[in-house]
Structure formats: structure tokens, C-alpha cells
Amino acid sequence: MTGEFLMNKEEILRSLINQYPRIEPVSGRILEAEKLMEECFEAGGKLLICGNGGSAADAEHIVGELMKEFRCRRKLTAEERKKLDEADRSGFLGNAIHPGLPAIALNTHTALATAILNDCDPSILFAQQVWGYGRAGDCLLALSTSGNSDNVCKAVMAAKARDMKTILLTGAGEGKICQFTDLTIHLPEKDTHLIQELTLPVYHALCSLLEAHFWGV
Fold it and tell me: What's the pTM?
């Protein structure tokens, strides 16, 4: 956490575009994606995230930004602080715990993943978890540079069956996953490493936008 964060949503998006002008054509989509996540969290839902390889690392990175303080100080509500103080009369937890936005990276559960890969069709690695964790009103953020990852596509299908909102962050190509998602952000690159280079600032912007909505000015 870098310190007190005072930018509003317009400033966050402007800063992103100033640093990465190529992203400007999809800035509206970024705001739409943030709005879907915002509505999910406000309704008590959670965000599930999936991807392979570098995208799996990105999924974990996103969880790290959402589940604790990222760029601004997050204050507990009076009711949250009261409950923590009742449980821990020393006051330590009330001072230490950060409010978080519930997010789960589906590539991080090694025992579960290996059980699915060994006992089931490997292509349902993420779909099985979406079906188990997902509930109506939750949101799935799918990361696929090609837009064609089969296990990610099946996860999106499972999410739709669970009445979840689905967002895809991908490259410029029209991959097969696009036809199943509620919203797709097409980053303006076709080479995997270049898509990945733009993926990080986009999801940092999404996390910043969410944090500004819930705890910023």
C-alpha cells in the first residue's frame, strides 16, 4: 500500500491512458467491467478469477490487490470494528485487519487441482471450481491472451449456468470465449507477451477504480 490515495475514477483512468495511450479505445470497456465487479461486491458477491500460465500469475496478483489495502487506507466500518474488538479484546485485530473485496484465484488450490486433473477431464479444472464456489450474482474474470483457452472457456460456460456475470480480458483477436461472456476487453495487441504487458496496468486500474469506489474520495 503506497499511501493515502485521493484520486477519483476519472483521474485513475486518465492516468492509465496517459501512460498507455494504446488502451484509450477500450477505456469505456474497463469502466463497464469495473461497474460489473462493483455491483457484484455491493450485493455481497465474490470475484472468481482464472487463467493459465502468465495469466494464472495475474489472477493471483489481482487477488492480492483486492483482498487487502492496495493504494489507499481502507477503514473498517464501526460495526466491523465492534465485532473484531468483541472477539479480540486486545484491539489488535481491529487495528490490523484490512477490509477486503472477496476474490479467489482458481489456479491456486494445488490439492484440488491435481485431484480434478487426475480424476476428471482436465478441461474442467476451472469449471468444476466455478460450479462449486459460484453463486448467482458473483462475477468471473477470465484471463486468456488468445481468447481460446479451453479450460477458461468452460469456466465461463459454468459461470453463465450459475447466473454469474462474466468478463474476459484478452488480446485483439476474436477468440471463441468472446461469444459466451457478458463483457470482453480486447487489448490492442496480438503477441502474447505484448498482451501480457498491457494486462497488468489494466487490472491495476480496475483494482484502483474499485478501491476508489469503496474507500476513496
Answer: 0.95
